[in-house]
Amino acid sequence: MTIPTTPPKRKVSRAATRKTKRLYIVLTGMTMLGIAAALVLTAFDDSLVFFLTPSDLAERQINPGQRVRLGGLVEEGSVQKQADGLTTSFVITDLTAAVPVLYTGILPDLFREGQGVVAEGTFEPNGTMVATEVLAKHDENYMPTEVEEALRKSGRWEENGKYGNAQ
Amino acid sequence: MIAELGHFALILSLMVATAQAVIPIVGAARRDATMMAMAKPAALAQLVLVSLAFAALTYSFIVSDFSVLNVASNSHSLKPLLYKISGVWGNHEGSLVLWVLILALYGGLIALFGGNLPPPLKARVLAVQALVAAGFLLFMLLTSNPFERVFPAPLDGNDLNPLLQDPGLAFHPPMLYAGYVGLSTAFSFAVAALIEGKVDAAWARWVRPWTLVAWAFLTAGIALGSWWAYYELGWGGFWFWDPVENASFMPWLIATALLHSAIVVEKRDSLKAWTILLAIIGFSLSLIGTFLVRSGVLTSVHAFATDPERGLFILLLLIIAIGGSLILFALRAPSMQAGGLFRPISREGGLVLNNLLMSTAAVTVLLGTLYPLFLDALELGKVSVGPPFFNATFVPLMVPMIVVAGIGPMLAWKRGDLAGALSRLKFALAFSIVVALGTAWLTWGKPVLGVAGMALAAWLAASAVIELADRIGIGRAPFSKSLGRARGLPRSAWGMTVTHLGLAIAVAGITGASLWRTEAIQVMRPGDTIDVAGYEFTFEGARNLRGPNYFAERATFTVRREGDVYTVMEPEKRRYFVQQRETTEAAIHTTLMKDLYAVIGDKSGTNAWVTRIYHNPLVPWMWVGSLLMILGGTLSLSDRRLRIGAPTRRRTPAVAVQPAGAE
Q: Which of A93, A124, B110, B660 keeps 20 to 30 A from B207, CA to CA?
């Protein structure tokens, strides 16, 4: 490599060069942020998933194929294993409205009837949700805030953390 | 009694911290040596007091003193000792004590080993450190007293969340906190420098080791957390872009940028204001991380505190710390002397690009993490931003980052020769193409992204090795001479090579683990066999066992490859009797190139179980890569230059001492 080790001779141009340098950095930074903004906007388009309660669903039209998160309680007595042994059907309720859900795979360890869950998936034309992911509340003191919200909305939430007919 | 002593020690340490936050700073302004000198004993006293409080809490956990509310709600007499101890920080209050303890530890270390710092700088750094401590102590004493008593004392405790009863997670929080809180030192140095109005090469040299320590711990903490998620949650995944994971990842991204920009300040006296800003932002993100996790504003596996009052307090703390330091920055930064000039294509240019990419990545992660909060606060509905978003934004930004990480070290300071650097990297390019072709051939029909990932990893690994070989003159000088040169190479140079190599290996691991995994979920009866990626898993049955505080169902799989027995795997499903909770213990068979991963789920009818089996290629590479990165950081930390501290001359001819691109 041939690197001139002496600094530029003309003193006058130093300030100008500094500005050029700064300009380069600012321009690169702007480009970077521009790219990031473009990435973020396109990514937001496909990957934002709305959270809804069963009551919301009753009012709203969901396009087939649109991913949705549904939160509420697993209705007592609704959990059933299908014949293949892998698929579970259950009902998510906010004690006002209820939605049937199908899930294939291993349910989370804390999935139980009467407990709060959040299911993510798409809807079949018949109104059944096919969940690709099911999250259960993960300890006794902690309820997914989304489920709490859903119960508050349907007026079934009581302040001491108890709710409706669940245990 | 012990608990009250601990509580008292906390109150005392708040008082000491308050004094330490005020007196030395006034002293530094007045050039009063006595007032400045107060910082050191105060920092040590604070360390002793917080250690006492921590010891008191740990003692209460070890002896299972259930009259302490925190112990009663998070421990159980049957729990193994390790988890009694890890239970100390497995909850909100205790984790805060740990946070403050680590903060005090860093303060104490600066006080002890900061002998070469100019007294005013040292006084100010310790004062800022104490200010942060005071904020957190106040928070703890007002809203979350870890020593609160309960009367009457329960007979036994409530136990710790079984998911957290795991060796990986026992050490994950201390590591992560050591990283989070370690960034407080960079922050304190930055704020102190702003107050002083002076940033120079010496300053950068003092900040770098602390940032390195924080960075190495953060890397370790994140890797441990990821490893834990991988083997404990039973989904075979290692990173979920969960808000809490992001909370630890953003400071890591900024700390990485800071490490690189501090090099420019040290060597070239340039990028000073930017480096200060990064130091402030890095710690701010740590605080935001603490806020996100502790306030329960996010729905997340990790958020075990749900209390708006606490959230408000932390929010206030955040506004004061971040807002205050940014205002100070706005006032002081313009007066900073700009340093050495450089061309866009130069070592500095490469480091700047690294910085911009890292910061942009941090911004996109922050946006994805906070966007749901904004929407929720504005009542625009509840949304979740999942992995697709982060993959679509983060991954494209990392591609140029890795390309530049290969070229950057080959460029000279000030003005680099891109063509020359590329011609020296032609072997790296060739290697990367060979790997890409090999990958394409092996994984035909699978995502093309995998080919790109492996090619990038190969590029980075090869260029790191070539850079080192170039530097010690392999091929140009006799081997013995190269060996001598290798021995004489500064540890920081070795650190860079090892870390970049580690990153390359981790990138390969992440590529394999995310794109080429084979998954099989099915119902199995004893005797059933299933083929997963060429391995035949035979389910032999399940039996019941009893552990110290749980019952377990343990399944046995015999794995065969081409008819020969390859290994036996025994996953478990446990039910902890105190909290009546179930956890999944995956069985993992690790080899150099892949993991076999088996999980047993619910019983499905009589004598049949749902089983889940994964073939996870290259997963071990992620852990090896992380270890190398930590090792690289540690190597760099042991550099002589950082240990002895900066020479008194401000302008060291650093460029002459360390030829950039070996010529």
A: B660
Classify B555 as helix, strand or coil. Answer: strand
Contact call for residues A74 and A81 (beta carbons, < 8 A): no
* Interval B454-481: pLDDT, tens: 999 999 999 999 999 988 888 777 888 8
Give me the DSSP letters along B110-145: HHHHGGGS-HHHHHHHHHHHHHHHHHHHHHHHHH--
Rounded CA gap, B472 and B579, in Å? 60
Stretch B430-446: mean pLDDT: 91
Please give the Cα distance from B118 to B129 (Å, whole number): 17
Give the pLDDT score at A151. 65
Output DSSP code: residue A157.
B
pLDDT value of residue B158: 76
pLDDT over 60 at B227, yes or no: yes
Residue bearing the bigger pLDDT, A7 or B23: B23
How many whole angstroms separate alpha carbon B495 and alpha carbon B266? 17
Q: What predicted TM-score, i.e. pTM, was given to this entire model?
A: 0.88
Q: Which two tokens stand for residue B461?
A: 């690994």
Strands (DSSP E) along A44-97, which ranges?
48-52, 68-74, 80-81, 87-93
Max intra-chain CA distance, chain A = 86
Chain A's closest residue to B423, CA to CA, is A1
Tally of CB atoms within 10 A around A159: 6
Q: What mean pLDDT do residues B501-508 have?
A: 97
Task: Return the structure tokens found at B201.
Answer: 């090469």
Residue B572's SS3 state is strand
Chain A residues in contact with B577 by the CB 8 A cut-off are: none
Closest CA to B435 of B447, B410, B453: B453
Q: Which residue from A40, A149, A101, A153 is spatially nearest to B382, judged by alpha carbons?
A: A149
Residue A3 and residue B599: Cβ atoms within 8 Å?
no
Instruction: Name the range with the highest mean pLDDT among B129-143, B290-304, B648-662.
Output: B129-143
Residue A11 has pLDDT above 70, yes or no: no
| Contact between chains at B363 and A36 (C-beta distance less than 8 A) | yes
Q: In the block, which residue shows the tokens 């932002």?
A: B281
Q: Which of residues 60-79 of A touch B (CB under 8 A)?
A: 69
Nearest to B347 by CA among B357, B355, B336: B355
Mean pLDDT of B99-122: 92
